[in-house]
Amino acid sequence: MLSLPAPLRHALRLRCPRCGTGRLFAGWFRMEPRCPACGLDFRREPGFYLGSIYINYGVTALTTIALYGLLVLGAGCSAEQALAACLAVAVALPMWLFRYARAFLLAIDSSVNSEPSSVPGDTGGGLTDAQLSSHRTNDGQAGCAMGIALTLVLVFALLMAAVTLWFAVGPGSQGGVWDDGGLMEEPG
Q1: Which residue, 181, 180, 165, 171, is CA-closest to 68?
Q2: Sign of CA dihedral 15, 17, 21, 24
Q3: Domain-by-domain residue ranges, the chain?
Q4: pLDDT in tens, 168-178
Q5: Nearest to 9 by CA among 122, 132, 76, 103
Q6: pLDDT band of 2, cuts 50, 70, 90
Q7: 175 in the Ramachandran plot: left (φ > 0), alpha (ψ -120 to 50) or beta?
Q8: Gap between the Cα atoms of 171 and 79, Å rounded
Q9: For the residues 62-83, what does the mean pLDDT come to?
Q10: How many Å apart are CA 139 and CA 90, to the nearest integer?
């Protein structure tokens, strides 16, 4: 069985990626500044957590596409019913995923960067040249990995859309016309 790395397992539990004990969040949308157990600083450079938006969007898009296909093709729901269900999921799911997307991004950063970078206002003396060089390499690798992951999400979403259209129009369709009930009629 495939085992997830410890930081990712901790992210699923919304715990510190280093120790797995301290809580990441003080409230539903407010992160703790540091781990209460080991002191790991959760603060990153401004804009760091914007990456979690892409994770959240990707999961929400894939979920709503799959749900639409299942409801229309599998359960026989009308397009309007499926769209209403997908709209409800597209509104509620990102709010629920907010904390997990941030935790996952922090876990990836903690896995790639062995030492967290200093944050504005930190009086710890900053990082040495060797540490900065290491961070540049690690950040480049993490950025490449996220780019590949997002590309795969986009390709999967496009494939799902193509399959949905193929089933909606029909494999042997010769350009039929939609009637008022949403069914294909033969031309003529």
Answers
A1: 165
A2: negative
A3: 6-111+133-163
A4: 666 555 544 55
A5: 103
A6: low
A7: left
A8: 19
A9: 89
A10: 31
CA distances from 30 to 86, 90, 102, 117, 158 (A): 27, 22, 11, 21, 34
* φ/ψ (deg, to 5) at 17: -65, -25
Between CA 141 and CA 163 the distance in angstroms is: 33
Q: What percent of the chain has pLDDT over 70?
A: 69
CA distance 145 to 155: 15
Distance CA 168, CA 34 (A): 51
> What's the chain look like in SS3?
CCCCCHHHHHHHCCECCCCCCCECECCCCCECCECCCCCCECCCCCCHHHHHHHHHHHHHHHHHHHHHHHHHHHCCCCHHHHHHHHHHHHHHHHHHHHHHHHHHHHHHHHHHCCCCCCCCCCCCCCCCHHHHHHHHHHHHHHHHHHHHHHHHHHHHHHHHHHHHHHHHHCCCCCCCEECCCCCEECCC
d(CA 143, CA 107): 14
pTM of the model: 0.62
